[in-house]
Amino acid sequence: MSLRLENIVNEINKLEPSAYYGRVTAVQGLFIEVSGIRSPLTIGDRCNVHTTHKKIVPCELVSFKGDKLLLMPYGSLQGIGPGCRVDVENAAPVIYPHVSWLGRIVNAFGEAIDGKGPLIKGNKPYFIKTSPPPAAFRDRVCGKVDLGVKAVNTFLTICKGQRMGIFAGSGVGKSTLMSMMAKHTSSDVSVIGLIGERGREAKEFVEDVLGKEGLEKSVLVLATSDESPLMRRQAAYVTMAVAEYFRDLNKDVLCMMDSITRFAMAQREISLSVGEPPASKGYTPSVFAELPRLLERAGPGASSGPDACGGTITGLFTVLVDGDDHNEPVADAVRSILDGHIVLDRAIAERNRYPAINILRSISRTMPDCDTPEEFALVSKARKYIAAYEDMAELIRLGAYKSGSNRGVDEAIFYYPKIEEFLSQKKGEKFTLDEGYRLLKEILDTPYTPPNAAKG
């Protein structure tokens, strides 16, 4: 009862003594043209349009046209026409996260959409759009995150506070890999943003992937592909804001977004609508400005200063590459911002080896600082065998390579099938960090017998 009363008091305190309003003068495409509002508004401010169907449609100010405002709706334009009243929302776009949000599914406004009743609001507002902790005060990444996937835990070790991208074309398994990590992670809390995804996937993700145990320590933020570009973009911001709340509670948070490409597409739709000129492959300059503003919010918390906390946000962001081109504009921009990338290869997936991680094209930039010298040497040795085999793969398949002509290649041929089997993992399997290193060590400790000796 006290929590409900507290929520009521918070809502009363947010009421403004005065209000500004105007009227809709025209609707053009995705825009609502408004005049008559005398309040000093800025880009990004919120307004509410009262439709002829007695509904309220939240909108965002995206442009000015002389003394008129151009709004873009978060919902449908149905029922909006000339003469509809438009109220100015005085409060900045914020959410009020609470620990009770764990196990819940929310939309881009931070509202419950799982049918389990309303959410309890916390006392502290979190701005949907905000800046990351100052670089001078930020802590360093330290300690490993156990993601339960042995290929990632060993070859691409991820540290607390690191930001990693999962790059793949469609149908190669990036969502499946992300779901395995979400289920098996050792992090205190998981905040998962499904941005522009298919609507049917939400229930599948909750019931089949996370399960009851995984959901209890997770918050899902959902914006499906049929929702407006503003909703899809804001879902990414809200995902990060919820993660920041738990980070400030000194939690180690795993923040996952599927996918960052659809965030970029939503921003492109918005900016093209307001007349921003397209640049690289139709993406506007504002897309490449918004990407670092979003992604830099993940990472370690501040170790000193007024916002000091002991929590971290480890970021995992999937990137849908266009036509398997890993150098397309969004993929290239995201890769330059993050601390590493996991590349999923269609050719490996076609061999039915999942997760289809291309070890040689993937990298974790913080891995050398997190691994012990023994672990780093073990992984380096395995990488050497993979590289040696891949260099000679064509000759080996054609039967043109003669055994015994190069000891390094002979060793690679001996160990490569075993390493490939190690990299394979079923969806329901879980391997800890220690188990992964132990299994890899067992493979590389297997005595190598030269081909000639084997014949004798």
Automatic annotation (TrEMBL):
EC numbers: 7.1.2.2
Cited PROSITE patterns: ATPASE_ALPHA_BETA
Gene that produces this protein: fliI
Catalyzed reactions: ATP + H2O + cellular proteinSide 1 = ADP + phosphate + cellular proteinSide 2
NCBIfam families attached to this UniProt entry: FliI_clade3, fliI_yscN
Record domain AAA+ ATPase: where: 160-349
Localization per record: Cytoplasm
InterPro entries: AAA+_ATPase, ATPase_a/bsu_AS, ATPase_alpha/beta_chains, ATPase_F1/V1/A1_a/bsu_nucl-bd, ATPase_T3SS_FliI/YscN, FliI_clade3, P-loop_NTPase, T3SS_ATPase_C
Gene Ontology terms, MF aspect: ATP binding; ATP hydrolysis activity; protein-exporting ATPase activity; proton-transporting ATP synthase activity, rotational mechanism
Family statement drawn from the similarity comment of this UniProt entry: Belongs to the ATPase alpha/beta chains family.
Enzyme class: translocase
Classification via SUPFAM superfamilies: P-loop containing nucleoside triphosphate hydrolases
A Gene Ontology biological process term: protein secretion by the type III secretion system
A GO CC annotation given for this chain: bacterial-type flagellum
Gene3D superfamilies with a match to the protein in the record: 3.40.50.12240
Task of the protein: Probable catalytic subunit of a protein translocase for flagellum-specific export, or a proton translocase involved in local circuits at the flagellum.
Protein keywords: ATP synthesis, ATP-binding, Bacterial flagellum biogenesis, Bacterial flagellum protein export, Cell projection, Cilium, Cytoplasm, Flagellum, Hydrogen ion transport, Ion transport, Nucleotide-binding, Protein transport, Translocase, Transport
Keyword Protein transport applies: yes
Protein name: Flagellum-specific ATP synthase
Pfam families in the record: ATP-synt_ab, T3SS_ATPase_C
